[in-house]
């Protein structure tokens, strides 16, 4: 740390899944990269998480799939239960199969691969405190090292991959990076990893991750049951943020007590965390800065999965940094390509799923039981929505559902309205302007869709728009 007077091309804050990938791909292309994390090196990857990740991201990045120590188990598909547990949709799609990982081992692998790729300096136990600006351009960071105190790191570009509680996001000067983020767009989680040492309780459906939609037990979120192996499970729940103080009680009563039947168990890990469940920030970039992963609200709003998008965004940030450094232009104008990459790909999917999430969160258990039991959405339709953000229901398909005796016409009409709005917003996102000057018009179109949905279908919970 003492030799920090040198200027890096990129300083990456946070060596989690997003930061490790950004550092790796930037270093691989020869950029002078500094990676910092507030954790001790051996603790990197230690995160309260469901630990589920799809296999697709590893093919997309052309990196090794989890194996050996970092792989807890392979997952074939998802089982989704109605609140009364009478309907189970089993969704199997080879493209969406994946893994439950051992989070520390997985995190350690990603950080080791970043260092092997040529990251110049890695400082653990080092916390980013403050963005340094020269005029309206980010030029580095003030940091505090556990052993060496406060110092400054200078860089052409900073990548903020410091997670949901990023201390840097609120310091960004550019107004396009939102600061008034609503709590209604985040979910509070609590989870434990429970082992059965005496092997007297077998984990249920060990090749599936199981989700239970239930507005009583997990208001606004869901209960999850993710196997790690036949004798170990990651179980938890997510609820609205205003259940703070009650989340652990809900977990104990509705998750632990209902799923852990063996008197002999060992809690391997226990804790809470927060995940955003909305579209990405309006802009995930500023002059000299990009926000990757949770710090940029790049999490799937339907299920809260953020490992895949953080890694995807890590690659996009590395690519944008490489291009910017090649021409010596680190302005927002030049880094805008990072926004374009995000918004036209998973951003489009997430904006669309954000609308679905807002509707799902206000459905009652009765409506969920009814809708699922009557095949309002089938397994294939749900898989398609999850993968693309589109509801591929033709009018004929809707009519067929109506004829099949779907008596709740309000729900059917709401679904049709939602379908139109979801497809509309995904289309708008896919046309995210490559010219920053066209952003305001584009944003107006997006806001209009949210306003329409709010007016027509749901009771708003003060989401940030
Ligand atoms: C309970 C829960 C369950 C989840 N389950 C899943 C799941 O099953 N599947 C899935 O895909 N996603 C899941 N997620 C979401 C997922 O964990 C995150 O989206 C993902 O880890 C985001 O990665 P990231 O790199 O952006 O941030 P993080 O993984 O949070 O990494 C941030 C890094 O930055 C470091 N850091 C923080 N502040 C500073 C600072 N000031 N200076 C320096 N370093 C700093 C941290 O130590 C950390 O290493 C879950 C989240 C929660 C809370």
Query: In percent, how helical is the residue content?
Result: 25-40%
Proportion of residues in β-strands: 15-25%
Q: What is the number of independent domains?
A: 3
Q: What is the radius of gyration computed over CA atoms, rounded to a whole number of angstroms?
A: 22 Å
Determine and state the CATH class of the largest domain: Alpha Beta
CATH H-level superfamily title of the largest domain: FAD/NAD(P)-binding domain
The hetero compounds bound to this protein are:
flavin-adenine dinucleotide
Q: Please give the alpha-carbon distance between the first and last residues.
A: 41 Å
How many strand units? 18
Overall pLDDT, averaged?
Answer: 91
- The run of helices and strands is EHEEHEEEEHEEEEEEEEHEEEHHHHHHH
CATH architect. name of the largest domain: 3-Layer(bba) Sandwich
The total count of helices amounts to 11
